[in-house]
Design brief:
Four copies of one chain form a homotetramer.
Chain A (H helix, E strand, L loop, with lengths): L10 E6 L4 H10 L5 E7 L9 H4 L10 H4 L3 E2 L11 E4 L3 H13 L3 E4 L24 H9 L4 E4 L3 H10 L7 E10 L25 H12 L2 E2 L4 E2 L4 E8 L6 E9 L5 H10 L3 H4 L10 E4 L7 H4 L8 E8 L5 E7 L3 H17 L5 H5 L3
Parallel strand pairs in A: 1-2, 1-4, 2-3, 4-5, 5-6, 7-10, 12-13
Antiparallel strand pairs in A: 7-11, 8-9, 11-14, 13-14
Chain lengths: ~375, ~375, ~375, ~375
């Protein structure tokens, strides 16, 4: 593939919901992206017309990227003169539900981090290393909905980390999975969780999260049969908590497998795991989607969340479980691999597969 | 029982390891105790001779109790002229291993929070609401070891909370239990966990903790057969983590039961649970050893750890588990119910049962 | 004074803004108050009619007091049939501005924690140990405004701690004061400060706070001349920051005094300081409004905020200042001494002075 | 200067105290350094002989740099066969006092972050943008001590941030400075501050820190007269506190100036500030040693500490002070600009000035 000169003619893209926490991450990741060029930022009405740098309350260190500073906030409308055929959606669920189909109808390929359509029967829920084949559902989707564009979703932040840790074990037969999450504050956006809830405290409840983690994981690990998604037959149960951490979801997992395996086979399965993003050398793909650390006390959010520039899931502490077969701990960066980077990687996969339409495909090559 | 006038002639007691975090809690709880009077504080060599208020770096709010301020730190030795027949041990495991038998040999009833002897075949590991009958092992212990005194232990802080949440469910048959703990910094004592490990971080490892939680829980929920302890047949698996919380261990639990029960039967089992401490109205016994809260987001450390003055375990979020039968969350105050208050309640139980010897028994009545 | 039998006929009181952080503190403090009985809770429209225990999201540990649980939320209106002549206001400034005069007009003595009227020329801004004489302004206020009731305010949380630390030094002549505050999250109410602003962070800005701290302190330390408040001639400059602490405002202070004094004279001035609340033994008055601690590293929020049940200011670290004369650190509990307890103590002072009207004055005696 | 091909023959350097927090930062910064090559790591006895990657408990994210992993820990001895003429010292003060002269005596140029010799009359205490002329003292030092090597120190972490914020104002005449610091946990190393001291807490005391901040700042802002250091005549007073932040010291400063200046002149002074590191384009020099931010609530540790890769001090909130002339807030990364990066920049300056000896000077050019 000839991506090297893509710089010369990058694909114009938009970010919907650009002022929120995930929108900011997208803006930051796009600032130096070799294939995509951010040309439009859209957000809710009250900010429309203001330059992005003024409208945003920037949270992710240092400054708004120069290329985005002056972009005027546009309304969340998919008018006929849209300058993009690719949009990343970091909208809240309710707004996503309303806006995303309008963009798809206007010919835009929407890569959405929102939960609104993830479980729809014709909407692929993609983790590119795990289920790239689910993109085949787009043909069905576009036909059924008469969309010139399309809608591709990425999972909830806690489901991405879990499924990337589980997918390499699928060869051993995943039978049952119990997971307790310790999720960071950024997962709730900004203002999000009040500080009085997280100073000297843990909140053992995140609205709707356990259901999403369970159902999305089964869809991701499942199959596209040609006309429907079939859940993986794994039984999953989650307890989700919020801890005083800025970024990084830690998950304590117990698994029951169909086959008897040794611990070192599992470690090898993680270490060897790779998928299309690695084969296609997608710009946001980490060298290793999963790494296993031997130290007794890893992974830890503050030490491991930026592994692979935030795109690698770190696994550790594999040991036998007295109730199921094995237990281990995994960690993923919830706003990079778990959100903004996930949407971006999905778009890169779609582009590399030639799914973004002829106009775009020719552009960067 | 005629404890009311106990004030007049309280039983003299010692605290071993009085300057540590748990030692301080013991000193604080004893300051206003109706039956026991703190007359001796012992600690490691370097502090011997200094007044307690000078030797201690007080951590638990406000000030060292007046009655303890001037007590001189004594060495950890059980000389012949000991002024006490009851001692509370808050020693580190290695020191406990060395010192506690010497005190028992000198005729002292040692109520220990240390892990050194908890799993010994003749040492009772007591949670008074759960297994007061295990005190019967003391006869065996004292005979076998020729001790005029005795050694009674209380469990690890994470095991106390878990077993108090599980014991009321024992009637339904406990088959399998998976637990992930989020433990507070005070559980590691002082200086304990460095702040660089807990600012913006969670550490998914506590040395030796998972093994203790699993094995101690089985002993506590098990039986004393007359000459041995028999573990409860429950299968248990734990993952233990350290979170940025001062006090209060939160535990996410999944259970499999032998009987089919409705959630409200479980809630009723918790609400109705009481034991000897409640029947005997022991001074440190909470009205309810376990309470169940209906709110979606409880228990939380900062809101619930002081329930029942830190002696009540709070349970919440009971719901079906997709892998085992039910899942729920429980919380206990790790340095009160999980340590200092536990040792104290054990001593109160022993006293009320007349086990502390004639001299003492007559004193406070 | 014969307050002992006040229990029999306590004065009925209301809390305006009862569901907020400070409202909750007031409800908690009133639950066991010997003179006042909470009979009415008022809050914003959306909660009207709901029982207090349902409408409130309780933040301050354990549970809503039993006596308040069933009280229905009433609207913030001062109708003719008000069952109270005393109300505590924990309203936000904008609502306070609108509602408080209406209550005063309806004959209610309003003890307000809101900032809306603090700096009005006829509204006393009281710290009872410092400027009880300012209550004399009420006569002017009631006459000028034709109010059968009255309005008494307490200062901003950071000003109360500072002025209580400064007032004992006033005898040495306060010339210049520089203060940097480290204020807790609870000072911003709930939801207040987002956790992403306080995990691993300090925010060196609190909207409007520096101005309030400077101007209110001068008014409190000043005089009521008979027809106007005269600011104390001290020069004050403040820098206010928000730190990851739940409760307790820490302040680093440098002072320049007119007289040359020794450090021990200043320590003695703090230790000996007392005022009308102590002389009158008001129920919420701490034995010592200010205590000085000798330890090198005190005061600290977690260790000292509950001194005197949260009503005592702790001072420490007095030492020469290379720029002004002396520097020291002080700490106060911002939602007790700095807000709810402050309003309560003001009401107790007014009652003890016979200012609450004949009907009330006779009631509890 | 022809540094471009320095890569080919980098100067071999050692890190003394390589396993500590600052030692780790040095190892990380040296991993990609264009002039210096880390060839030796030294640490205390108990680690000698172990590969660096095993001996270190790595704290600063991701992993030990590959180039350093296998380096064996060497003892802290300056034998005759030392392979380096440049060493960075991150030793604790007591060890530094013992070891550093031995290395200088062995011909090594020691760039030390330790406090042991900072205030010695012949030891330069350098912030390269402020007082590069102080390096002239090395001639005196080497002559007087008969050292073939030399000792150059960098200031305490809190003094570097303050002096970089003050130096641009020196043209207006610095008369008096009051500063309150909010210092991060990493400033105390590892294990450093116990988490029980920083969860929900601030500690208003750091042993020895206030004296260092005051005296070092006067030395840095002062002059080398040719045979002695002369303190700047500014009066300085500091209050130092520890806050629950990982990295980044925030300082609230009030200044009195000899000249009357407008705020925008001060902002311009900061914005225009540059020094030899910028003129010489030293590898670790930030483009701007100081930046001023206009936002009301900046600088903040989590947002601004990595400005200029951690080498830029961020200033904000300039406004008139009611006691002195102006007040403002500044922030610096305490383990980069305040420690490891400071030592490194000092060495770069010395090298660029040709002070590291002929052998070395020729090497990278």
């Amino acid at each position: 593939m000839a991506h090297a000169d893509a710089q010369n003619a990058r694909i114009p893209v938009a970010v919907l919901g650009a002022t929120g926490t995930i929108g900011q991450r997208l803006v930051a990741l796009l600032a130096t992206h070799p294939w995509f060029e951010l040309v439009r930022v859209a957000a809710s009405e009250r900010n429309v017309g203001r330059p992005y740098a003024e409208a945003v309350r920037w949270h992710i260190g240092s400054d708004v990227p120069d290329a985005a500073r002056a972009l005027p906030i546009m309304p969340l409308e998919a008018g006929p003169d849209l300058p993009v055929r690719v949009a990343f959606s970091a909208l809240p669920a309710a707004e996503a539900e309303r806006c995303e189909p309008a963009f798809a109808r206007a010919g835009v390929y929407v890569f959405s981090n929102a939960s609104a359509y993830r479980m729809q029967p014709d909407v692929p829920l993609i983790v590119p290393e795990i289920n790239p084949a689910h993109l085949a559902a787009l043909a069905t989707q576009r036909a059924a909905r008469s969309w010139p564009g399309a809608l591709v979703t990425n999972p909830n932040c806690s489901a991405i980390g879990l499924t990337l840790a589980l997918a390499p074990l699928a060869r051993f037969g995943l039978r049952r999975v119990l997971v307790t999450t310790m999720q960071s504050a950024s997962g709730a956006g900004y203002p999000g969780v009040p500080s009085l809830d997280l100073i000297d405290n843990v909140v053992p409840y995140i609205d709707g999260e356990e259901g999403k983690l369970e159902s999305e994981s089964r869809k991701i690990l499942g199959a596209w049969t040609g006309d429907a998604f079939e859940d993986a037959p794994v039984r999953l149960s989650a307890q989700c908590t919020r801890v005083p951490v800025r970024e990084g979801h830690l998950e304590c997992v117990s698994v029951e497998l169909e086959q008897r395996v040794e611990a070192d086979e599992m470690v090898a399965a993680w270490a060897d795991f790779a998928g299309e993003p690695q084969r296609l050398r997608l710009p946001s793909a980490p060298l290793h989607p999963v790494i296993y650390r031997d130290e007794l006390d890893r992974p830890q959010p503050v030490l491991d969340r930026l592994a692979g520039d935030g795109m690698t899931v770190t696994v550790g502490r594999l040991r036998p479980c007295g109730v199921l077969d094995y237990k281990f701990v995994c960690l993923s960066h919830n706003t990079i691999r778990g959100a903004a980077g996930a949407a971006l990687l999905n778009a890169e996969l779609a582009y590399a597969r030639g799914l973004l339409g002829a106009e775009n495909r020719s552009a960067p090559a």
